[in-house]
Design goal:
- It is a single chain.
- This protein is mainly beta and 145 residues long.
- The protein has a domain of 100 residues: PH-domain like.
- Helix content is 12%, strand content 42%.
- It has one helix and ten strands, in the order ββββββββββα.
- A seven-stranded antiparallel beta sheet has the order 7-6-5-4-10-9-8, with helices on one face.
- It is globular and about 35 Å long.
- The N terminus is likely disordered.
C-alpha cells in the first residue's frame, strides 16, 4: 500500500454522520483512501454535497456523479452510496478556475492547470448554487479573482 501524505486531507461526513478523512495519494493524484476521524469538524458555509453530471468521454458521455465540496477540495464519487469505496478524483479549489459555459446555462467547468472537469447541473439554480459555493471558497482562501 502506498504511503499517504497528510498535506492534502479533507474531512467529509459519512452517511452515518461520523466524520471521515479523505487523503489524496501524491503518487497517483486521483486515488483517495478513507479513515475514521474522531474530532467533529463544523461544516463551513461553502460546503456543498450533491449530484452533478460529469463529462467522461465520447463513449460514455455525461455520467451522474456525487460531488462533495469540503475544506477547499471538490471530490467526486461514482454515487453517494459508493463513498465508502473512496473518491474517484479531487481538485483543490483555491487555485481552480470556475468557468460557466457560454451556451449551456446548466454547465460549468472547473480546471486546475491541465486538469479540467466538465460539469453539468440538472437546473440553472443548482448550477448557480455550485458556482457560488466554489467562488465563495476561493474568496475565503484569498485566491479569488
Amino acid at each position: 500500500m502506498a504511503t499517504l501524505t497528510p498535506t492534502t486531507a479533507a474531512v467529509l461526513t459519512s452517511p452515518s454522520s461520523a466524520p471521515i478523512a479523505v487523503h489524496e495519494e501524491h503518487n497517483n493524484g486521483d486515488s483517495c483512501s478513507l479513515s475514521d476521524d474522531e474530532d467533529e469538524v463544523p461544516e463551513p458555509p461553502s460546503s456543498l454535497k450533491g449530484t452533478l453530471n460529469k463529462w467522461t468521454n465520447y463513449i460514455h458521455g455525461w455520467q451522474s456523479r456525487y460531488f462533495v465540496l469540503r475544506d477547499g477540495t471538490l471530490a467526486y464519487y461514482k454515487s453517494e452510496h459508493d463513498r465508502a469505496f473512496g473518491c474517484r478524483g479531487a481538485i483543490a479549489i483555491a487555485r481552480a478556475i470556475i468557468q460557466p459555459h457560454d451556451f449551456d446555462d446548466c454547465r460549468f467547468d472547473v480546471s486546475v492547470n491541465d486538469c479540467v472537469w466538465y460539469l453539468r447541473a440538472d437546473s440553472c439554480e443548482d448550477k448557480q448554487r455550485w458556482v457560488e459555493a466554489l467562488e465563495a471558497y476561493k474568496t475565503e482562501s484569498g485566491y479569488g479573482s
